[in-house]
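Ex. 9. Protein: Acyltransferase.
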Amino acid sequence: MTRLDQLTGLRFIAALLVFLSHVPWPSAPDWLQTMLAQGFVGVSFFFVLSGFVLSHSYATRITCGDMTYGRFMALRLARLSPLHLATALPYVLVGIWRNNLTAPVALLNLSFLQSWVPDSTYYLSLNAPSWSLSNEMFFYLCFFPLCFVAAPRRWLLTALLTMTVAACAAYAVTHYNSVILVGERTVGHWVFYIFPGFRLLEFLAGMALYDVWQRGLRLPRSALPLAWALLFAAMFVADRIPEAVRMSLFFLPVVTLLLYVHLDRAPALCRILSGRAMVLLGEASFALYMIHQPAIRICNRLIGDLPHRDLFVAAAAFALAIVASLVLFIYFERPAERGLKAWVNRRTSRQRRPAE
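Predicted structure tokens for Acyltransferase:
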């Protein structure tokens, strides 16, 4: 199987964009604040990358009968659960201590179901970034049966879902985009940014990208700087795009192109991204994504009232998040994932033995 270490390094850049979008920047110029606020595009990258990487790693094994549905889902739970539960635990303990955590909120979050509830007190509960894990779990549930669908039919499904999202976004812009029914976020925020059914489009785009890449279609190396320029241009103008479109379709072609141009390891940037340091940071990017908000809150409280305070908060939070993510990855996430996956593999191999 072809190693694509540059994509691992690129995961760190995506997590960094999300981090920068959550840091307050009151002293930054307006144009820079506008661009940094669009760092949520990193989540889109993770979703597209997930569709691509799972296709690369599992599609053939699934269609050949080497991987059962139960084993696949158990392995994916082993990937997400340790860090999800570990980063949720402090919030659960604080919520119990403050007596402001309800059982339904905690149970839905811990069982990866929070994104299905159109209420921000649910889908942004406990460690808020974990809402995307709820989406990922839905993608995993869909992935196994999608592997048995012929590529042209998956592309048709992707096109139909794109048209559905576009039609709903057009309707939302004029009717309910800014309406708040429950929680603190608009209906449009849940429908177009959180709702797993619509975010499945990015996962399908990643699967389609793998189909195209597997068929040998490559882009010229000159497309790499163009893809980065398009990303920054899109981030610069994004605040002029209605929320429903910005949260759903606007960044999708840019993110897909950005992923595609990094599939060739030859360009200098790809060689940097596939270096040992960037690969390590990329491997720890899941931990960085999951702990960056607590790191920002801690530094925001500890740092006093200083000139350009936001720069000190950002620098301190970044350093804290990087160190903590590396420690979590090396000493907890990776050992826990390996242990759980080894247990799953032992269990499934024992279950197959009598039939053999």
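Check your answer against this statement. The radius of gyration is 20 Å.
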